[in-house]
Amino acid sequence: FVQTINLRKTYKMGSNEVHALDGLDLTIPSGSFTVVMGPSGSGKSTLLYLVGGLDLPTSGSIVVDDDEIEKMDENALADYRRNKVGFIFQSFNLVANMTAEANVAFPLRFSGIKKKKRIERAEDLMEKVGLGDRIGHRPTELSGGQQQRVAVARALVNDPPLILADEPTGNLDTASGVAIMTMLDELCKAGKTILVASHDPRMLNYATHRVFLMDGQMVEEKQYLES
Amino acid sequence: FVQTINLRKTYKMGSNEVHALDGLDLTIPSGSFTVVMGPSGSGKSTLLYLVGGLDLPTSGSIVVDDDEIEKMDENALADYRRNKVGFIFQSFNLVANMTAEANVAFPLRFSGIKKKKRIERAEDLMEKVGLGDRIGHRPTELSGGQQQRVAVARALVNDPPLILADEPTGNLDTASGVAIMTMLDELCKAGKTILVASHDPRMLNYATHRVFLMDGQMVEEKQYLES
Ligand SMILES: Nc1ncnc2c1ncn2[C@@H]1O[C@H](COP(=O)(O)OP(=O)(O)OP(=O)(O)O)[C@@H](O)[C@H]1O
Ligand SMILES: Nc1ncnc2c1ncn2[C@@H]1O[C@H](COP(=O)(O)OP(=O)(O)OP(=O)(O)O)[C@@H](O)[C@H]1O
Ligand SMILES: [Mg+2]
Ligand SMILES: [Mg+2]
Q1: pLDDT (average), residues B83-91
Q2: Could you tell me if B136 lies within 8 Å of chain A, comparing CB atoms?
Q3: Which residues of B touch A10 (CB under 8 A)?
């Protein structure tokens, strides 16, 4: 389903270069629950941004089904992001002046679904993440973990085949975290492909595949555990 | 050091009322490492905002040393926030158009310390949180966990007697998380009072006191564990 070939992302800082991804060859099988772990700054979010079509690599390719993402034009990329991917951001990226419900319904606006149905679907997902009683709250009127759960619901509303989750449980207590992991697990069993970047070791309980990153490169689990 | 007396914070949402804090009687001893745990939405951040003088209660009092925070005028409150408290925000709240180093040095601007010394102190703290090589990066040029560590460094630069940490390890891998907890522990042993809101059970290893919140009220550990 997803394959990266010698994937590189380099940032220039004055005369310095930061190799956020440093030649990554990675295969994420269709229908897998792939967990990416690694130290803070090792390149997890960068990998997810590239796979999600939110940024372009410095070099190398990203193949999703039969499409080479890095070769797409802006329209094809926007289409890919909108229809193929559900992205849960590490810092949520909710729209401040819309209610939680409107935030969740937002990705459906080009779907052709009638407004009444869009609201129903959004409310349904908010219920599933335990926020049925917070529908009318704006992001600043929600706790950190509640904002995180709104971000999760929003990523799922379009029923995308590929879900990219960047630290989806970082602000959640044990019970709320397990609820989210269970949700992702059920989506995987229903045929979706899940790629999660996480520091939460409990996420490995649901993983069908594991990837370990250090300094923008893939390493063996042994190497990662010894670090 | 810190005591709350029948502390309440209520938000009005149309005809609804959200009781974020619902009558809290809490004592945080001077020099303690107090950890506040509880489900997402239980009131942890709200408690920290009130103790940190970032918001006023609906009713009840907050006594810090001999001052009743809720009775202070704007100037006294600003003074309290600037000199008495180091706050690590759950969503970091870094200034986007300043470098990491400038963000860390910012609380020192009214301290009377010369610029060269302010920069030295900021660089020193960035080193301590493992970001010596990220000094010139702006927040958007940092990973989520790196931003979190900048927020930690900034809260400590003024050497405040009371440190309020809201989920300080939520975006960190095991090693980085332990480094932060160890730092807070050393500050506690040096005489500071630490109040941490955290979902990370490892934080309890450092706690001298534990507080469990559910629905804005204090509960017994047993009640919290059964939830
Ligand atoms: N401005 C606001 N208006 C209305 N409700 C609010 C507002 N701010 C917070 N709340 C509500 O108050 C409750 C407590 O929020 P708080 O941020 O203190 O929770 P928390 O324990 O820090 O949660 P988390 O673990 O998710 O960070 C939540 O249920 C939240 O929805
Ligand atoms: N715009 C940028 N300019 C320069 N360097 C950047 C930029 N964005 C990210 N970096 C650097 O690239 C590296 C990888 O960042 P990334 O966000 O992918 O890490 P991460 O594994 O997600 O970390 P975390 O666990 O802390 O979220 C980091 O060292 C970071 O400082
Ligand atoms: Mg990240
Ligand atoms: Mg909170």
Answers
A1: 96
A2: yes
A3: none
